[in-house]
Amino acid sequence: MTPKGRASLAVLGAAVLFGTSGTSKALLVPDALPISVASVRLIIGAAGLVLFIRWLGRTDQFKALLRRPIIWLMGAAVAGYQGMFFIALGRTGIAVGTLVCLGSAPLMAGLLGWVVREGAPGWLWAGVTALAVAGLAMLTLGSDQVPDPIGILAALGAASSYAAYTVFGARLARDGYDSSAVMAAPFAIAAVILLPFLFAGGPWWVSLDGVVMAIWLGLAATTGAYILFGKGLTFLQPGHIATLTLAEPVVATMLGVAVLGEVISARGWIGCLLVIVALALLGVMENRRTGAKVGA
Predict the structure, then answer these.
(1) How far apart are CA 147 and CA 93, in angstroms?
(2) Would you place residue 289 in the very low, low, confident or very high pLDDT band (cuts 50, 70, 90)?
(3) 20 to 30 A Cα–Cα from 265, which one of 39, 76, 96, 129?
């Protein structure tokens, strides 16, 4: 398998871990305030990332990155994503908020990547992404959804934040910084930004269920996920990375059905299939493109 193929699998692995977040919260601490959950998740996740780069011997890179203004912009983007995404879900509902945020993120990442000369994603990527977003729409949207303008703007803001830390993270990784250090530095900054929300809604994390959820969200769905996510920064274009993470709502849906007993319609299953097909096509496209270059 080519480096791009392995990078694609790593990003898909990250998306799988991202997709466990909602189910773990619903199972363990359903009443916890989302912004407090985000704060705990970032604190533990950032600590895990810092310990990981210390184990790798990349502490010097971490310190060097903290002196770069772009890292502070990325840190604000990570914190902004968390805050605006939860605002969007609260005002538009989970379905619409997820669709607008995750559906627009690949386009924004692709355009921003093109603007800062990280490469144009291409028409094949556009077609695959359109197919994946269509599947996401079938999976999430119902006929009774009423758009909320502020919620839609918040979702678009979250997508823009996601695009910013993905694109600038890719640039730093290609400048020679270790991808894990590139993830650890902005997440440490974001954890400090969201620290005031730690006690919002009460200390839910002192219970046994709260501890289990905090550890899972922090170490698996953040530290582990973003180590894998970072593997894609060196080899994949930002728009492609954002498209691959559209696997997240599919995983979340599957877990909702298998673990929480949720029911989705036939249209929703078709939507899941479309997203899976689109992501498989993108992975094959990346693998063959690199293989063709190597063969040449």
Answers:
(1) 9
(2) low
(3) 129
**Alpha helices, H only, 116-148:** 123-140
- Quick: pLDDT tens for 149-163: 888 898 899 999 999
Residue 143 has pLDDT above 50, yes or no: no
Domain count across the chain: 1
296 is a domain residue:
no
User: What are the b/e assignments for 35-57, b being 16+ CB within 10 Å?
Assistant: bbbbbbbbbbbbbbbbebbeeee
Q: How far is CA 51 from the centre of its chain?
A: 21
Residue 45: name the closest of 178, 220, 203, 204 by CA: 220
Structural domain that includes position 255: 3-290
Query: Pick the residue with more confidence: 3 or 185?
Result: 185
Q: Residue 18 class from Cβ within 10 Å (0-12 exposed, 13-18 middle, 19+ buried)?
A: buried
CA angle in degrees (0–180, nearest 5) for 16-14-156: 90
Residue pair 17/247 in contact by the 8 Å Cβ criterion? no
185 in any annotated domain: yes
Residue 238 lies in a domain: yes
Residue 274: count other Cβ atoms within 10 Å of its Cβ: 20
Q: Residue 286: its pLDDT value, please?
A: 65
